[in-house]
Amino acid sequence: MRKLPDIFLVLLLVLTVVLAAAFALQQLDVLSGAGPSATATATTAPSLEPTPEPTLEPTLEPTPEPLTAQEALAQAAGKKIPVLQYYSVAASPASGATERYIKPSEFEKQLEFLQQNGYQAITFEDLVDIAQFEKPILLTFDESSMDNYRELVPILRAYNAKATIFVETDKFTDANCMDEAQVKELADSGVISIQGRTKSGARLSEVTDETELTAELAESKTLLEAASGKPVLAMAYPGGEFNDTVKTTVALYYDFAVDAAGGVFTCGEDCLAMKRVPIRRSTTLDAFGELVGVATP
Questions:
Q1: Beta-carbon neighbour count of residue 133 at 10 Å?
Q2: Contacts from 55-60 at CB under 8 Å and sequence distance 24+?
Q3: pTM of the predicted model, to two decimals?
Q4: What is the pLDDT along the chain (297 residues), one digit of tens a residue?
Q5: Angle at alpha carbon of residue 258, lines to 256 and 263, rounded to 5°
Q6: What gap in Å lies between CA 275 and CA 174, rounded to an integer?
Q7: What is the CB neighbour count within 10 angstroms for residue 286?
């Protein structure tokens, strides 16, 4: 009976040692990071900042297509554009057709008259901006003569005016007419627009062969653009003669075509049959004013 307490004490001692060892191992695990952390991990509270409003991108309207010259003229329906028809400016006529040759001094008087009455002498390239011109007028010449080559540029510059010369490309080899280099010189002058008058000057209503008609219109345009270095968008009907077949072919290559007469052109009318006002050597200044729509005092 005396031995039982001793055994109990021994067991109690062993249990104490075991518990002490287990505690020591647990502390060792904590220090080495193998066990669960004694420090609670803090939980980050969610941000309470307001959610920004989404930015609305502006809606981009499509850029409108620019107007063509024909559309610009249609929008300006009713506006008058006198298209004057000259042949050549020369003190002395080079042929028997005296009426076709306007004296340089008379041409200057006409330009001065137009300037005093507020007219702006423009070219076919300007028609796309027709709304910008209050009193537009077109000065057109149906000959690429050497007289025009020598006389026109200084007179036009003196009056801040521009003019158009219609050129037959077969005349590049004619000694009395401008060659390709002279055409280029005038095209670069800033006051002369070079446009077409077919290849040979044939009366187009008499040309029945389709290939020949195409050559008169298309080949001459190609040759003239190569010579001038600028687009050719208008042509003059030689003799003012054309028909529906001719106009249909012309429309394939040109934006504008002018008749030989008919009166003052009005925006909204046919751009492939633009009327013109003939000006001749005998046209007085009073008559000139009436023809363009201005009564002289």
A1: 17
A2: none
A3: 0.79
A4: 445 556 666 566 766 766 766 666 666 555 555 444 444 455 555 556 677 777 777 777 788 889 999 999 999 999 999 999 999 999 988 777 899 999 999 999 999 999 999 999 999 999 999 999 999 999 999 999 999 999 999 999 999 999 999 999 999 999 999 999 999 999 999 999 999 999 999 999 999 999 999 999 999 999 999 999 999 999 999 999 999 999 999 999 999 999 999 999 999 999 999 999 999 999 999 999 999 998 655
A5: 125
A6: 29
A7: 11
User: Could you tell me which residues are beta bridge partners of residue 196?
Assistant: 167, 235
DSSP type of residue 103: -
DSSP secondary structure of 29-98:
HHHHT-S--SSPPPPPPPP-PPPPPPPPPPPPPPPPPPPPHHHHHHHTTT-EE-EEEE-EE-SS-SSS-G
Residue written as token pair 């007179």: 155
